[in-house]
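Lecture 7 notes. Example A: sequence first, then its structure tokens.
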Amino acid sequence: MSQPPQRILVPIAVGSDDERARARRTVDLALTVAAPLGASVRFVTVLEPMSVEGGHASCHDTSDVAGAQHTACLEAKRQTAAHCLDAFVEEASGAGVAAEFGLLHGQPDKAVEADSQRWGADLVVLATHRRGGLARLFHPSVAWRVARRLDIPLLLLPEPRA
């Protein structure tokens, strides 16, 4: 990167309490970087089809959900994500940082890569979560998959040690 970043993409997840805590730290870091540089920020989240993981059913689990209920579930997730991202945009505005948000669809790594190219991002700020051993081997993190796809700088924010 020969010049300071001017367009910072900030992919965040906003579903669980843990995800919202990571989002909070990521937004704080992105605004800390953007404000003195006069950079703009784009907050995004990926509304991906999900399965039942960790005991939490999602909208993708349609075995017990009729079509209309499935659609309502997806719309509720979209509205929740939009509300959360809009609050981050308002916060950025209050800090003097130009910001916008986007709702992406698909696999997170591919969606983030495509959006970074479309928007012309020159830096991505992304939180990671600690996962070790076999979990990391068999299920690479989104951050790892994003890092392998991007050709622009990536600022990773690790989860604090417990």
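Example B, a different protein, same format:
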Amino acid sequence: MRRARAAFLLRSGIGTYGGPVLRGLVLDVGGVLVGPGSDPETLGSLVCHLRARGVRTALLSNDPGRPSARWLHDLEGPFVDRVVLSGEAGVAKPHPESYAFVARLLELEPGECVFVDDLLVNVRGAAAAGMVGVHHDGSHEALAELAVLFGVDLEQVDDGAVGDAEPWWRCRGGPELEGETEH
């Protein structure tokens, strides 16, 4: 019954949480995917799961985009649909245009996207731009919020590996990579 109701809501343009259907997930990097308080395995698995369900995904970081950010660009395609670095885009969080820009790249409206960041100022900026903002405070509450927003049972999300390939955080440096501290 729950699946039938969720399918009806999605066909009707209503998300499982009662708001509009969410079709995009935009994540900060430092403090969310990597660094203290992050859980790259669980979040990485959730991103892979959502992407397989057709949710468009992006990273939005205030990284200056120097050669040291190459590993972030390498995530575009295998892990997320788009990578936006403020140093290259010319606009940084929490400016509203940064959120509108990434939504346009995903071919979505800001109101169809969820944005996750560890800094409240950036979450508030995303919400002001029309996105659903989720504050990642190092606990698993952000993951639980994403599960509710996207109608996902976290216990049914696999480890993010595709075939024999390693998950992104193991083959790209991920949490062990030093120097990615920009928000």
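Note on Example B: The chain has eight helices and five strands. Residues 93 and 122 are 6 Å apart (CA to CA).
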